[in-house]
Automatic annotation (TrEMBL):
Location (main, coarse): cytoplasm
GO (cellular component) term, any one: cytoplasm
Single GO biological process annotation from the record: regulation of secondary metabolite biosynthetic process
Native organism taxonomy: unclassified sequences, metagenomes, ecological metagenomes
Keywords: Cytoplasm, DNA-binding, Iron, Metal-binding, Repressor, Transcription, Transcription regulation, Zinc
One Pfam family of this chain: FUR
Protein name from the UniProt record: Unannotated protein
Similarity-based family: Belongs to the Fur family.
InterPro entries: FUR, Fur_C, WH-like_DNA-bd_sf, WH_DNA-bd_sf
Compartments, record wording: Cytoplasm
Alphabetized GO MF terms: DNA-binding transcription factor activity; transcription cis-regulatory region binding; zinc ion binding
């Protein structure tokens, strides 16, 4: 099953206890097709598929899908929240400082001192969020604005 297969996406919605509606399916498919899209980008894709849908409706669907762990919401500093379908693992992200393109980076394994809190203050830590910043290949020759 492809990550964009409508039947597979609908099955995932049902398996999560959600009714399959056109807006839910369209939002889920949009994020699957455009990982790390923000809500406005998702809304643009959904409108191309469904026609008129309010931005608030898109936000509502994104919230429900995130609550059901079908989507993951990431919030890079200085940019709007972005959404992806890759959930259930502790992967990180790399973001271009110039154009904002975002990619997935698998969690470092073996010796990872930055992922071990020196003083967790009684917390039981189950996740570390790391964002790598730099320039993507397309922007490497571009002067910093």
């Amino acid at each position: 099953m492809s990550s964009l297969d409508p039947d597979g996406l609908a099955a995932r919605l049902r398996d999560s206890g959600l009714r399959v509606t056109a807006p839910r399916l369209a939002v889920y498919a949009a994020v699957a097709a455009h990982p790390h899209a923000d809500a406005e980008q998702v809304a643009t894709v959904v409108r191309a598929r469904l026609g008129a849908i309010s931005t608030q409706a898109v936000y509502d669907v994104l919230k429900v899908l995130t609550q059901q762990d079908l989507l993951r919401r990431i919030e890079p500093a200085g940019s709007p929240a972005r959404y992806e379908t890759r959930t259930g693992d502790n992967h990180h992200h790399v973001i271009c400082r110039l154009c904002g393109v975002t990619g997935d980076v698998d969690c470092a394994v073996n010796v990872t001192p930055c992922l071990e809190a020196s003083n967790p203050q009684g917390f039981v830590i189950d996740e570390a969020e790391v964002t790598y910043w730099g320039r993507c290949p397309s922007c490497q020759g571009t002067a910093t604005p």
